[in-house]
Amino acid sequence: MERTTGTVVRGIRTPIINEGDDLVQIVTDSILRASRAEGFDIKDRDVIGITESVVARAQGNYATIDDIAADIRSKFGDATIGVIFPILSRNRFAVCLRGIAKGVAEGSKKIVLMLSYPSDEVGNHLVDIDALDGKGINPYSDTLTLGQFRELFGNRKHTFTGIDYIDYYKSLTEEFGVECRIIFSNDPRTILGYTKHVLACDIHSRARTKRILRSAGAEKVYGLDEILTAPVNGSGYNETFGLLGSNKATDDSVKLFPRDCRQLVDKIQARMKELTGKTVEVMVYGDGAFKDPVGKIWELADPVVSPGYTAGLEGTPNEVKLKYLADNEFSALRGEEQKKAIAEYIRNKKKDLEGEMASQGTTPRRLTDLLGSLCDLTSGSGDKGTPVVYIQGYFDNYAM
Question: 228 and 251: one domain?
Answer without folding.
Answer: yes
